[in-house]
Amino acid sequence: MLGTGTVDANGNFLITLQRVAVGNEQLDVRLADAAGNVSLAATLTVPVVAPPASPSGITLSASGLVLAGSASEGTTVRVYSADDTLLGTALAGAGNVFSITLSSAQLNGQALHVVASLNGANSAPGLFTAADVTPPAVLTQLVINATGTQVTGRGEAGATVTLRSASNAVLGTATVGADGNFTASLSPAQANGQLISAVQQDAAGNASAGVNLTAPDITPPALATGLALNVAGTTLTGSGEVGATVRVYSAAGTLLGSAVVAAGGQFSVALNAAQTNGQVLAVRLTDAAGNTSANASFGAPDITRPPRQRRCRSAPAAPR
Length: 320
Description:
Number of strands: 24
Number of helices: 0
Strand content: 35-45%
CATH architecture of the largest domain: Sandwich
Distance between the termini: 163 Å
Number of domains: 4
Helix content: under 10%
Radius of gyration: 44 Å
């Protein structure tokens, strides 16, 4: 049953159908009087209506919310997303123009199709691709391997990932796969606690905000340099890795003193025993990650006089 109506005093009727009848569809029309007697069916073939022309001249506002274009006056124009979600509809007006406010902004390169309909006939879709002015989200799940040679993570499929050092030098690049994962090789390896920034850029050139990660620190500090001992042999100075702990040992392995390398790279270690007798000292640096440098050897000056030796008197000769 598509609809019912009542014949008026002039013998006419008008019925609004519950759906649009399509071209060449066969409709049966029957009359029933007040006593319930039903006539034979009169058959009506729905005329074929030529589909309207496809919408053309399609434009999208900078906000991505208003889509406009040309379509035959009186047609209903609908905008769909790539997955056929209806985004908006409007009636083409005088001058064969339409303007549709969309339910969501289309600013990320979305593929849209626009269809004009009239009397149940649909046009071929007018195709339109929205501009991509939306930067990707920041990269997530970033992990650097234990040797500092590889970074993995997740991003926008097809985007290019760039990894840079603190001095902005490019350390590696990769393309995010269709599954949203990427793997980038680092060159040179970052294995000394360096700060690395990661950014992804989509095909339209939009760049995400950067996200930072810290490389593992598996690199021991370089040898302490510029070693010097004060005249009293009680303070050893030198240069080393900022923040590292300096330890000074005797040749026998006894700890003589320790200090932390200052922001300027210098250190000063107070020794618990004066080193003024040509002793050989070993100086080691240990960074915050626990990596320890090789020994830097230092020879203390020998300014200590040897102890006085007593003179031995000869015994008197025995009398003859």
